[in-house]
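Our consortium's second objective concerns turning raw sequence data into structural hypotheses that experimental partners can test. To show how far this objective has progressed, the report includes one record in full. It was chosen at random from the queue rather than selected for favorable results. The single chain below, 144 residues long, was entered without modification.
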Amino acid sequence: MSAAAITTNSDARPAPSESSGATRGSVTVLLRLEAGIALVASIMAYRAVGGSWWLFAGLFLVPDLSMLGYLVNRRIGAAAYNFGHTYLSPAALAAAGFAAHAPTTYLWALIWAAHISFDRLVGYGLKYPQAFGATHLGHVGKRP
């Protein structure tokens, strides 16, 4: 029996196939809960280090500029978006800031992590190049 033929207990829809890469049901709920916790943790850490809330508000949406890659094509767009929306990127920024003794980068990294967490909490996951709405958390927006 294929993975696509197996159904979840919560609904009669088939479980995602291995090729779809999207989550459903309780797995999606867990990932969104994790994102909510990461969002709260990022905000608490930002507050603890005394970051300016004006800076937070001003930089919160900056990672969405990565969507400009979609002006080139879907493959480049997905790669650029994923670079801007994986926790690895703000972690690398924080590590570089630590190595360079530049503590301001911690603030930027925490804002970036908060943005990623917020996006994941509301259902915007990492993108697949097949379509803008194809994410690891399921399809968002109108289907083509």
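The partners drew two points from this record. The first strand starts at residue 134 and ends at 135. The helical segments are 25-48, 53-59, 74-84, 88-99, 104-121. Both points have been shared with the crystallography group to help prioritize constructs.
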